[in-house]
Amino acid sequence: xxxxxxxxxxxxxxxxxxxxxxxxxxxxxxxxxxxxxxxxxxxxxxxxxxxxxxxxxxxxxxxxxxxxxxxxxxxxxxxxxxxxxxxxxxxxxxxxxxxxxxxxxxxxxxxxxxxxxxxxxxxxxxxxxxxxxxxxxxxxxxxxxxxxxxxxxxxx
Length: 156
Fold this sequence. Notes:
156 residues, Porin, 1 helix, 10 strands, 6% helix, globular
């Protein structure tokens, strides 16, 4: 892999959606309000990576500062039969727009809240070995009906 220049570039690698089930509310804990959202199924679309988001969950922790700490683990099955583990952390600004959308099942736009992630992908299939040493960042939003959508960018 060669890198030219000092500035990093973001290149859209793939997008994915995942249906969220109603959360299991663990409730207030000493570090915030913990909710577990079962996730999946969903779709993965991109030039090099496409397939199905099979299942996973978000162990969301909402702090007193108005931000949710996203902690997601899941599995992707590619269109050609490989399996990829995806794990990402991030932040979701729990503002009025996001709170209302979570309660009503409405959609948000990418600009409605700070919803950013840092996905890490792992795969044992040699066709997708490149994901094991690639840095990704993502932007999220809520879609109507309890679905989440992420645009994921490769840092080059």
